[in-house]
Write a structure and sequence with these properties.
Number of strands: 14
CATH superfamily of the largest domain: CNF1/YfiH-like putative cysteine hydrolases
Number of domains: 2
Structural class: alpha+beta
Distance between the termini: 21 Å
Strand content: 25-35%
Helix content: 10-25%
Order of helices and strands: EEEEEEEEHHEEHHEEHEHE
Oligomer: single chain
Shape: globular
CATH topology of the largest domain: CNF1/YfiH-like putative cysteine hydrolases
Length: 224
């Protein structure tokens, strides 16, 4: 189905991204995201967005309960620990990324379920690409000051061309997320990074292309 991506993270788990106008293949517990770094434990089925106010990442070890996050250019991160049978989902916009929400989600899985970072498999899903993520210099400097490998994730491309993504400062958010995961012990070989740029791929919602009131892509994972 166009706009529905299924990820192979190994047996015992189902993970997917549902893009524009794609019906969800199952019910998904979703938080009311606010670009925080709050990670919530889903310890029972049926939690609502009202129950999960101000939350931007979820973890659970409940079988048959899908957890997910909503994105429209922000970076979704899906996590699976096949050893301890636990999962996580994080919404990583630039604020969440600079504050390492993915790392915090991994550490919460370790605290709650005994996960070891080296066992965790991660999917960094569709989100805004390096060429499309044009930012102000102050945002780029925030990443530099936070210790990210700035030579790999930041470029200045000359004078900004109004109305386009040409020129200006650019950040590679997906690489920033990958760096955060590796820094907390997730193996590089266990990290899969989508090459889909939601800004340029019309199968997926993009707040930069369509405005912040556009729909949202749903990125979910479930133990089966």
């Amino acid at each position: 189905m166009p706009g529905l991506l299924e990820y192979d993270m190994g047996g015992g788990v189902r993970a997917f991204t549902a893009g524009r106008d794609v019906p969800l293949p199952c019910a998904v517990v979703q938080p009311h995201q606010t670009h925080s770094t709050v990670v919530a434990h889903v310890d029972r089925p049926g939690l609502t967005r009202d129950d999960l106010e101000g939350v931007d990442a979820l973890v659970t070890d409940l079988q048959g309960v899908a957890i997910g996050v909503r994105t429209a250019d922000c970076i979704p991160v899906l996590l699976y620990d096949p050893v301890h049978r636990a999962i996580g989902a994080a919404h990583s916009g630039w604020r969440g990324t600079v504050n390492m929400i993915s790392k915090k989600t991994v550490l919460e899985m370790c605290r709650l379920f005994g996960s070891r970072p080296g066992d965790i498999r991660a999917v960094i899903g569709p989100g805004i690409g390096y060429d499309s993520f044009q930012v102000g210099e102050e945002v780029a400097l925030t990443f530099k000051d936070s210790g990210f490998p700035i030579d790999r994730v930041w470029s200045f491309r000359g004078a900004r061309k109004e109305g386009t993504m040409e020129g200006g400062h650019h950040l590679d958010l997906k690489e920033c997320v990958r760096h955060s995961l590796i820094e907390c012990g997730v193996s590089e070989r266990n990290i899969s990074v989508s090459d889909i740029d939601t800004y340029t791929d019309g199968r997926f919602y993009s707040a930069r292309r369509e405005g912040i009131s556009c729909g949202r892509n749903i990125n979910a994972i479930m133990l089966i």
